[in-house]
User: What shape does this take?
Amino acid sequence: MKQVKIKLPLRTLALAGGLFLSATAFAQSGAVKGQVKDATGEPVMGATITANGKTVGITDMDGNYSVNVAPGTKLTFTYLGMAPQTVAAGDNMVITMKADEKTLSDVVVIGYGRVKKDDLTGSVTAIKPDELSKGITNSASDMLVGKVAGVDVQTAGGTPGAGATIRIRGGSSLNASNDPLYVIDGLVIDGNTATGMSNILAGINPNDIETFTVLKDASATAIYGSRASNGVIIITTKKGKAGSAPKLAYNGTVTMSHTQKRYDVLSGDEYRNLITQLGGDATLLGTANTDWQDEIFRTALSTDHNISISGGLKNMPYRISGGYQYDEGIIKQSDMNRWNSSVNLSPHFFDSHLNFNITAKYTYEKNNYTGNGGVVGSALKMDPTRPVRSDDPIFQQYTGGYWQYTQAAKFNNSNWAYTTNGNAPANPVATLGLTSTIAHTNDFTGNVEADYKIHGFEDLHLHANFGGQYTNSRQTSDNSIYSRENNYYGWDGITRYYKYSMTGNAYAEYAHVWGIHDFDIMGGAEQSHYHRTGYNQGFGLDGYNSDHQKLAEPARYNEAFRDQQAWGHHYSILSYFGRLNYTLAEKYSLTATFRADGSSRFAKGHQWGYFPSAAFMWRISSEKFFKNMPWWNDFKLRLSYGLTGQQDLGDLDFYYTPLYSKSDQYAEYPFGNKYYTTLRPQPYNTDLTWEKTATYNVGFDFGFLNNRITASADAYYRKTTDLLQSVIIPTGTMFAEQLWENMGSLENYGVEFTLDAKPIVTKDFTWDLSYNFGWNHNEITELRGGEGDDYYQWNTSNTISRGNSTYLQVQKVGEPMNSFFVYQQVYDKDGKPLEGVFVDRNGDGIISEADRYCYKSPAAPVTMGLTTKFTYKNWDLSASFRASIGNYVYYDNLSNNTYISATGLYSNNAFQNTTPDAVALGWSGIDATTGQQTQHWLSDYFVRNASFVKCQNITLGYTFSHLWGGEAGGRVFLTAQNPFIITKYDGLDPEVQSGIDKNPYPRPWSLQFGLNLNF
Assistant: This one.
């Protein structure tokens, strides 16, 4: 499915926020009539009436109903947020429905406890995955895409099992982590993903997830202190129910995936014509017409199967689940196999005074990353006039039969006369066939929670929790001696990764109600340890003996040197925390929290960080003056402030103290005939301390028509100070070019809006609608380490293809994070860009680095999500959309092809393909006046508006019951994932988290058939 490109003014996207909601009346003639009212006497519109399990009617806008049933028939009246009422049918009845106390007391999981949803004071979003509209979910992060206001979820391309980059209210750090904190069933998860594991949430099966709780403002997150500056995502898994009979459930899917869009490159014939037109030597070209993208892409077939059994013995609810997922990539030689298992036991003793929650999870994952490397870039660059394979003896003997650009070898081995040209484009099919990267990962997670309600003093609870995670992975890289990457030598590499973490906490909680006063006080302590070790070792294969005779089995690497490549990291955190919740007259609520964290990553005097917060909630709808608006049933005001921290330095666990690294066998120092290892000092900073983020939040919650329409709006301001940064230091200061310091500040401020509604509710038809909007402004307000308004720091995480390790993004005061640092392009009178001609922005008469400026950034200021669901009897139809407005991307594929000349397309004794867009642009890469190479790739012409509206998924389903004599029910469904995109961006996909659209693994469009069975 190709992208749909529609030229729409961005303001038209505001239509997504102008939802016109309507209520419809439904009435039918019959023998039994009456009216439904709420406890205040107001009519209840849209209440559902069932008889013997079948819907027979629905109330109109005045609460009236008329149903065709015999007098005396048992009728059940239900409505969202109200307790069901069952009565014998009679004429002219008036049914009074009361608020469902169970619904009103629904609790939301927060840090170290739970709170009534109605009493939330902070900015917290709790969602339960909708089985009817969740789309294709290969990872837990997929279930959050477009679902929560202010939460931007960007999947990591189409790599099998890929995770996502999640940003909550923008990034708060420049060099430290911007990822949220993940808490799964009470256990804080180590944020470091093991080598070879697809993503940080791979250890949890999406089918096991009961709820997500997203903590966004500091009053909600401060209880987690030093790790909560970027928000917290709490995941709670499904559990059994006490006294329930065993229930067996099966969920299975089969998915077909294909490329959504491909790059347009020249065919063999078009390329030969171009070379001829440019005056090149076309006799050096081949005669083939090879579509290299066709050679590497495929239609992928994936499958997913999950089974669970749940129930409850007398005092022990249980749930056991297992799953298998095979995700085949659309690039050949890329796939993932994953096995998940989970056990949950929730026994309770002594009349439920002592309660346990025991969870254990195991995941095994096997990943084939062979097709994940640069094969897409190679397919775009490889000469289209050449075949995939060749019978030529040179290719048969030296490249495994694959056509490659070759050159004379210099291996001092007469048996190997030719080798591959390392500066020429690679045959991507050869890369897939002659290299292999396979990873195996085992992940164990366990957690035991105990809660004791003191006998005789039941208002006091003692809670303890201990959990841990252990992960080990083994990734091997094997490159043939015929490969372009390691021709003649080959490569045999191995990476081992081990990590384990342990967290234990204990706290006491006292809750009591005195009349109109409701108190809940909690205090406790926690200690966490995080360990990571491993090694990375590899050598070329010795395929020949000393007489240059080929060996039957190449020699492997020497394991004796393994300890030289070993590494290890460890840090610990000791914490004390407390929280007070106070509610007055069920109208006014106050929450105050405090946490003190001590980190082993900082020196004495800087180890401890202190993180307070406070929040206030006023339920305005409970005031007397609000009672004359019965259609507006809920209105709350929330105010909050809090401080959170950051201490994530990556692998730098003891940066406050001098450390020395030991050299390996390649960096020894000779004294006479003997070689000695050396010790190299590492940079350190004794004054390094916490990065701190202060957040202010004001929010409103609304409920209309008995919560048939609910909404919330938030405005926030976040200020991060003492930014943890790696900055360039003067030569000779230390044995390093850069040093981590606390330097600078940045801010984020924005607004969020969420709306959930049921515009239409009838007997057989319901329309559910959910919309969210987020706007965030990000700006760096201070950077230390340089002087003047022109000071900036490079973002060294990303480079573009042209030049030599060319950085293009900077951090600069007054600009968003990771802004593009480019020249301003000059255009002719017809609007065509002039090659190498830039604006002299400082007016000094020359074009230099001083003329570069900050232009746009990859982060979208505006994000939106829209989910709509229609149900008609047993049928359901849903669709999910999301929008990203104002994100910009550097179009690397065009920039890297702007050398349209005979010498530009033939360099290093090799031809390389190009695109029709580059040909139309006509840039040669050479200044016609000076004959020098231009730096045209630094032009803002290549920084493109990548705003988009994506249809995430469309699902059609049918729910059935009474299968096999009433023993089972279930659902069948068909889902289309990524069916279309509306965008003006010309690249493969406008969703590029780094901002550099370079050699991506394409996101596929997919068609999935699924079956759910419940016994």
